[in-house]
Amino acid sequence: MLFGPPGTGKTLLASRLPGILPALSEAEALEVAAIQSVCGQADLSCWPQRPFRAPHHGASAAALVGGGSQPRPGEISQAHQGVLFLDELPEFDRKVLEMLREPLESGCIHIARAREQLSFPARFQLIAAMNPCPCGYQGDPSGRCRCSPEQVERYRNKLSGPLLDRIDLHLGMLNESFSLGQDEVGKPSSAEAAQWVAQARSRQQQRQNCLNAHLDLAALREHCRLSEADQQWLELAITRLGLSRRASHRALKVARTLADLDGVSSIERAHLAEALQYRQLDRRPMA
Prior knowledge:
Layout: E1 2-3, H1 10-16, H2 26-38, E2 52-53, H3 61-65, E3 66-67, E4 72-73, H4 75-78, E5 83-86, H5 94-98, H6 101-106, E6 108-112, E7 117-121, E8 125-130, H7 149-156, H8 161-165, E9 171-172, H9 190-208, H10 217-223, H11 228-241, H12 245-262, H13 269-277
Parallel strand pairs: 1-8, 1-9, 2-5, 5-8
Antiparallel strand pairs: 3-4, 6-7
């Protein structure tokens, strides 16, 4: 989840994500080609690149999750093995967004009709973007935001807690000063980031034969062990932040991934602290 004022680069950053993901394996490429074939998309000029789908916020439930009189894969299935980008997330119909909860957990979508039941694959990387308030400028140094606390709360309440629980990273973005005369290259480059990602994924596959995001509870306890002091620190932090059990497990998986990116075998407290920093939108501090 990328949230911040307009013009901070949320859409640009999301569109660059496919460039740091590893190439599709042969099996994954065949899955993507099969979905494109079912959808009647014969153009394979981009095959076997990872899909990038960005539906408009006015998309219907059938367009997003699939269905219709003759059920066909929706945007989430067409993003299988790739990226699904939902810009202006609160502007989507809430009922449509709630339909994302099942595929985010299971990696597939089930569609039931009177005469048939179909299952489509839907294991995608969700990237969402939103403004911090209705006008978009809450927290901007210019002070141009005039939204009341009630308006901000009503705007953010368009997203349910269970949906936010399923989004691992909440990244706040701010406007930065710049000069048209500067010609600075972003660091790290996409090629460098892609190399880090490939190395981290390789460590995960060698350790547990799956990615950290796919760890079940038993595997989470086995591969994300903490020292007694760090475990007590994490439990206290989770209690104070009011995180749900699901959000806590996902934060632990993120910490495991941060350790893999650093190339270390054990999760350190710095990894735990950084992972908790990415749970900004679902914090409910206790008194």
